[in-house]
């Protein structure tokens, strides 16, 4: 028996074939582009995801274990709006998570008392509901044809199974889900001029979603039946992969952006702190996370303007831990999410003197990022989350 894990990322798709015990057997990767037709816009053609999947599967199908494939799980970037008509045709490019065009629509939805009360979250411009409000206002002919709205991972599930099905963790980032009840909210759907029949069927991430389509099973040369799982949003999948499942467990992800995530045994939203509170990919569990928008990106920025490699900058600091220096860095190069929720805020250095050099600036950047992550830790503690054990993941851990 073999199993296939699919990671639908913003810049590419990665596929991992494992044996029944989860040991890796083979992997494949395909890349695609993001379109930016206007400032603040970020879109992708879902056909590129399907082409990437088929290319990865074609590569993995040469492995002798592949015909014994029994299960598939898809994790994907959250919040994207893939719009289908009644014939399941894609109506327009998918509006991605980092698209900010719907800021006015997000503010209007967020001002409604029931929005935060039911979803457990601030309605951010990157979430799905304000995207559909933007389409309604600016592309009414397209909006009138919308029969289903699928998140990117759910669209891959549709390609694999022929059914409109999504998991709880991904769906919690739409601003249409009653996150505590783990079901679509008619109140939130009404607020966004949407209907329940336009939503996919909900399943838990670890539950079966549907069988793999027979046409695909034949084309892929599979010897028996194969089930597609509900799947997960990207951070919920990372939490499952790192064993962050129960209260007290968490991880810090050091990437372009920084994430501090804590598993929660109950539903305890705190949207005023700009924490995200989402369903976990396992039943009756939730997670909360704080997000900073410029984590390793802050050091990459300093490296770029100084003509150095990031490793050169950090090597000069040595390995001895020291108290914070006089120079301070505010790591808000692209605005900030937790706890400030301010898209317009920007970074700054303070405490610079004539004697300040690149080493002091590097140290200040690392300290500023660390204190930015501490902001998320304090927000999580304020919401009652325990952080007994943290695992560091992401490119910034190297």
Helical content class: 25-40%
The oligomeric state of the chains shown is: single chain
Q: Look up the CATH topology of the largest domain.
A: Nucleotidyltransferase, domain 5
Task: Please state the CA-atom Rg, rounded to the nearest Å.
Answer: 22 Å
Total separate domains: 2
In the CATH scheme, the class of the largest domain would be Alpha Beta
Spatial shape: globular
Task: Sketch the major β-sheet.
Answer: 7 strands, mixed
Count every helix, treating DSSP H or I runs of 4 or more residues as helices.
13
Number of strands: 22
Provide the low-confidence segments as ranges.
Answer: none
Arithmetic mean pLDDT: 94
Features:
seven-stranded mixed sheet; Nucleotidyltransferase, domain 5; 398 residues; 2 domains; five-stranded mixed sheet; single chain; 13 helices
Can you give a write-up of this model?
- This protein is α/β, with parallel strands linked by helices and 398 residues long.
- It folds into 2 domains: 2-236, ATPase, nucleotide binding domain (Nucleotidyltransferase, domain 5); 243-398, Nucleotidyltransferase, domain 5, CATH 3.30.420.
- The protein is built from 13 helices and 22 strands.
- It has helices at 46-60, 103-110, 113-119, 128-138, 140-145, 152-161, 168-171, 186-191, 214-220, 234-241, 296-306, 310-315, 358-382; strands at 2-8, 12-19, 24-31, 43-44, 69-76, 82-84, 94-95, 148-150, 165-167, 177-178, 183-184, 201-203, 208-211, 227-229, 232-233, 248-254, 258-264, 276-279, 286-292, 328-330, 348-350, 387-393.
- Strands 1, 2, 3, 5, 13, 14 and 15 form a 7-stranded mixed beta sheet that branches. Strands 18-19-17-16-22 form a 5-stranded mixed beta sheet. A two-stranded antiparallel sheet has the order 4-7.
- Helix 2 crosses helix 4 (128-138) and helix 11 packs antiparallel against helix 13.
- The protein is globular, with a radius of gyration of 22 Å.
- The two termini are 34 Å apart.
């Amino acid at each position: 028996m073999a199993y296939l894990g699919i990671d639908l990322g913003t810049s590419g798709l990665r596929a991992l074939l494992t044996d029944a015990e989860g040991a890796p057997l083979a992997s494949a990767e395909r890349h695609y582009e993001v379109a930016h037709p206007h400032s603040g816009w970020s879109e992708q053609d879902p056909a590129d995801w399907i082409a990437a999947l088929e290319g990865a599967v074609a590569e993995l199908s040469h492995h002798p274990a592949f015909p014994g494939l029994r299960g598939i799980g898809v994790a994907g970037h959250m919040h994207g709006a893939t719009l289908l008509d009644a014939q399941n045709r894609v109506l327009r490019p998918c509006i991605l998570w980092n698209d900010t065009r719907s800021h006015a629509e997000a503010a209007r939805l967020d001002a409604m008392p029931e929005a935060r009360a039911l979803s457990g979250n601030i309605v951010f411009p990157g979430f799905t509901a304000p995207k559909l409000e933007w389409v309604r206002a600016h592309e009414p002919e397209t909006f009138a044809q919308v029969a289903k709205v699928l998140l990117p991972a759910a669209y891959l599930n549709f390609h694999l199974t022929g059914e409109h099905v999504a998991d709880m963790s991904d769906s919690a980032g739409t601003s249409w889900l009653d996150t505590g009840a783990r079901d679509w909210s008619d109140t939130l759907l009404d607020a966004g001029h949407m209907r329940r029949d336009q939503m996919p069927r909900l399943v838990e991430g670890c539950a079966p979603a549907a069988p793999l389509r027979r046409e695909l099973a034949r084309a892929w040369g599979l010897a028996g039946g194969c089930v597609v799982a509900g799947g997960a949003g990207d951070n919920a999948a990372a939490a499952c992969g790192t064993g962050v499942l129960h209260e007290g467990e968490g991880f810090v992800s050091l990437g372009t952006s920084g994430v501090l995530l804590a598993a929660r045994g109950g539903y305890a939203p705190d949207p005023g702190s700009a924490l995200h509170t989402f369903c976990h990919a396992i039943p009756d569990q939730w997670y909360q996370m704080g997000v900073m928008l410029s984590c390793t990106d802050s050091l990459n920025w300093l490296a770029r303007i100084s003509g150095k490699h990031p490793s050169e900058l950090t090597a000069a600091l040595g390995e001895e831990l020291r108290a914070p220096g006089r120079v301070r860095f505010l790591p808000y190069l692209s605005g900030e999410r937790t706890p400030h929720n301010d898209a317009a805020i920007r970074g700054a250095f303070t405490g610079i003197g004539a004697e300040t050099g690149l080493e002091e600036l590097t140290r200040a950047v690392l300290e500023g990022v660390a204190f930015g992550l501490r902001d998320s830790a304090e927000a999580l503690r304020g919401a009652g989350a325990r952080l007994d054990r943290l695992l560091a993941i992401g490119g910034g851990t190297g």
